[in-house]
Design brief:
single chain, alpha+beta, Methyltransferase, Cobalt-precorrin-4 Transmethylase, Domain 2, Heat Shock Protein 90, 18 strands, 33% helix
Length: 457
């Protein structure tokens, strides 16, 4: 049982009181402490330090679990510890260490502990805090038991060739200097996590979590008859990250349904999923998963109606499902840059936008994103709308494509609804989007002033 002396000075930057178990308030304190210098949270005291309601330890554990689910990524804490007050009243304390990651609430707010309260940060403050956090520390840690000789010269030469092709400048310096510059080895010439995953022939020897599991299921669920596994094919993929991307793509390609139609004198093939969307789903999972989670690998599940890519670890930093298109942040910047130089990432920060455009322009439903504390999944559906998507949709940007999908689902769209659909984008930009589609004959403007709405022409 903890000594209550630490409570005598009251609340401060590293000590907070909560009168009763409430998961939203608890989540705000967890994020604020983790983003700042850590602290101790005491449950059962009002702001003046006076004991409140009697506490149930099971309810406390449940509240802490619910609060953690509201944090992205999850916040590491200790266990609730009892504290006996001078009057015999029992309260409970939990310690929250300072985190090396940037934490946000699931609604996107990033908080820090400022005096006796949590203060939300604005855009520039978030970026400043993100740069001060060591979010990429794990990928720069050295790998125990590995040596520089475990980096494949063949993989390094391939990287150099791809890099020179992209930058138009061949590298003429010392290889070891470049490997240190890109974080593949540390100053003691020991290979790092990112170096092993990018350049070792078999990273899974040291990092088994870096592999991928693929399974193709017969129906729409993972269960077959009599409770048995319903997959018709299961593969475990290994190798350095560039090889994983190719092996995974080839495997999905071999299992993907292809149909064909004849237009005029030409035969046109239609794939079950847009190629770019599939590759982007694979690359995103490999780039942004949390490699510290050692018990799970990336899972790719192919059902009869959809393709799921499940990545261990929640969304990094302040990224949420709502801002994933407009905001960009990576917990593995060295891996991202390595695969960018390799050519697996066409343009940094624009992959999700184009994935959505490709799906919608091919007549599919938009990708579905599911963010949880310890996983993030992208689902691509293979069903198409009954009405083929007109050619003019191919010339819309990702915001306009979302507006058109909204009109298909709801019949019309207003300026207010468009702003809600594309939060964080200026009203003038959205007005110009709609005006452009009216001018091109895609939409018809109905009404005037506050009564204006838009429908498909």
């Amino acid at each position: 049982m903890l000594n209550p002396d630490f409570l005598k000075n009251g609340q401060g930057p590293r000590l907070a009181f909560l009168a009763k178990p409430e998961s939203p308030a608890l989540a705000e304190l967890l994020v604020a402490f983790a983003n700042t210098d850590g602290g101790t949270l005491v449950m059962g005291l009002d702001p003046d330090g006076k004991p409140g309601v009697k506490l149930d330890t099971e309810a406390l554990t449940k509240t802490l679990r619910e609060a953690d689910a509201l944090c992205s990524p999850s916040v590491v804490t200790g266990n609730w510890e009892p504290v006996e007050m001078d009057d015999g009243h029992i309260v409970y304390a939990v310690r929250v260490p300072r985190s090396i990651e940037l934490h946000a609430l699931t609604d996107g707010r990033v908080l820090i502990r400022d005096g006796m309260s949590g203060r939300p940060l604005g855009g520039q403050e978030i970026l400043k805090l993100a740069s001060a956090k060591s979010t990429g520390d794990y990928e720069s840690e050295f790998v125990p038991g590995a040596t520089k000789d475990d980096l494949s010269r063949k993989m390094i030469d391939e990287y150099l060739a791809k890099r020179a092709e992209r930058t138009k400048r061949p590298y003429n310096g010392k290889i070891d200097d470049l490997l240190r510059e890109i974080g593949a080895i540390d100053n003691a010439d020991r290979p790092t996590v990112s170096g092993i995953m990018l350049f070792s022939e078999y990273p899974q020897h040291w990092l088994p979590q870096s592999g991928i599991v693929f399974a193709k299921f017969v129906g729409k669920t993972p269960r077959g008859e009599n409770g048995l596994a319903g997959y018709s094919r299961r593969e475990e993929l290994t190798g350095p990250l560039p090889r994983l991307i190719e092996a995974c793509w080839n495997l999905i390609w071999s299992e993907m349904a292809v149909s064909a139609v004849v237009k005029g004198l030409e035969r046109e093939e239609t794939y079950e999923y847009p190629q770019f969307a599939v590759r982007e789903g694979i690359v995103n999972a490999i780039c942004h998963r949390d490699y510290r989670l050692k018990g799970r690998r990336i899972e790719i599940r192919m059902y009869s109606d959809r393709l799921e890519v499940i990545s261990p670890g929640g969304l990094p930093g302040f990224i949420t499902v709502d801002n994933i298109v407009d905001e960009h942040f990576s917990r593995n910047p060295r891996i991202v840059n390595g695969l960018f130089q390799w050519g697996y990432i066409e343009e940094l920060g624009l992959g999700i936008d184009r994935m959505m455009e490709e799906m919608e322009q091919a007549g599919h439903r938009p990708p579905a994103f599911d963010a949880r504390p310890y996983s993030f999944s992208v689902t691509l559906y293979n069903s198409r709308e009954k009405l083929a998507t007109p050619d003019w949709v191919r010339n819309t940007n990702h915001r306009q494509a979302r507006a058109l999908q909204y009109i298909r689902d709801h019949g019309s769209i207003t300026n207010r609804e468009y702003r809600t659909l594309c939060q964080g984008v200026s009203a003038e930009t959205l007005r110009l989007d709609l005006a452009d589609m009216v001018e091109r004959g895609i939409l018809l403007k109905v009404g005037s002033k506050k009564g204006t709405y838009y429908i498909l022409k």
